[in-house]
Amino acid sequence: EVDAELILMTARLWQRLGLSDVSLHLNTIGSSATRARHRTRLQAYFSAHMDRLDEDSRRRLVTNPLRILDSKNPAMTDLIEKAPRLMDDLDEESRIHFETLQGLLQQNGVAYQIDTRLVRGLDYYNATVFEWMTPLLGAQSTICGGGRYDGLLEQLGGKPAPACGFALGMERLLALLEQQPHWAQRFSVHPEVYVMHQRQEAWALRVAETLRSSGLDVYFHAGGGNFKSQIKRADASGAGWAIILGEEEAAHQKVSLKPLRGQGTQSTLDVMEAIQQIKSSE
After folding, report:
1. What gap in Å lies between CA 161 and CA 149, rounded to an integer?
2. Which pLDDT score, from 0 to 100, does residue 270 have?
3. Within 10 Å of residue 117's Cβ, how many Cβ atoms?
4. Which ranges in 82-182 belong to alpha helices (H)?
5. What is the pLDDT of residues 228-273, one digit of tens each?
């Protein structure tokens, strides 16, 4: 269930971001006993084709033959495709686990393809492995990868405990987003309030924090400048409101609230009154 929930979480993220050119690749690497059986079969198979292995695969044949299946060498594609499948060596528990996961994904509308070449090179991984891939980034096709690693905590000296997770490639994800139509407009974020001040930093920060505590998105002006230049920056920020704090406002513990969009006039209010007016205009 946790495996399925994590995959559904990532699927929802792609949906929220408007990404359609991503596909789920799914596999199981079973238990440690499963991999030990399969390791023996792989070593025998690849040893019989030593002349077709590249240097990296010959090294992996001794250290971790499972990683040969992940080779990107096109000259070895046919050899890898005909290699023994780990799926055929699964024990009953691993088989049921994988079939149950597939059923949960199907029932929740998540399309996937079983990729028997999808493996992990670290011993603490087991059972589910998955990757989200895209054809739009060339060789950097994987934007997210995860799976189960139930052996990790014990290897680190802790008590045995189940574990599952994933990692995102943020730069790859951003590169993919940049290829989407109008992505910058869809994900632009504007503050609701721009707090400006002159030599009233302590009071201005308290006001900004009070606004934030009420749930408003606030941009706090830094770097000095007169109110005219600050108004220009406030308008350029896209904020709907400006809070202006000068000596008079600080002396009376008030704020001047100025609408930056639409109609309205500037008024001097208590902080809580300003918050109420901003929220009532939403």
Report:
1. 9
2. 92
3. 16
4. 92-107, 152-155, 170-177
5. 899 999 998 889 999 999 888 888 899 999 999 877 889 999 999 9
Give the span between the Cα atoms of 243 and 221, in whole angstroms.
Answer: 10
> Looking at the chain, how many residues does it have?
282
For 26, 66, 207, 218, 243, the CA distances from 166, given in Å and listed in that order, are 13, 20, 39, 32, 42
What letter does residue 209 receive in the DSSP assignment? H
Task: Name which residue leads in pLDDT, 282 or 37.
Answer: 37
3-class state of residue 32 by DSSP: helix
DSSP code of residue 85: P
The answer to whether 47 and 60 have CB atoms below 8 angstroms apart is no
Q: What angle do CA 145, 77, 168 make, to 5 degrees?
A: 10
For the chain, list the domains and their CATH numbers.
2-177 (3.30.930.10), 189-280 (3.40.50.800)
Q: Where are the alpha helices (DSSP H) in 64-157?
A: 77-81, 92-107, 152-155
The radius of gyration computed from the CA coordinates of the chain, to the nearest angstrom, equals 28
* pLDDT 10s digits, 96-149: 999 999 999 999 999 999 988 777 766 778 899 999 998 878 777 888 999 998
Report the C-alpha gap between 19 and 121 in whole angstroms. 29
Query: How far apart are the C-alpha atoms of 55 and 60, rounded to whole Å?
Result: 9
Residues 6+ apart with CB under 8 A from 1: 104
Q: Which two tokens stand for residue 215?
A: 């749930």
**Whether the model pTM is above 0.90:** no
Predicted pLDDT of residue 186:
65
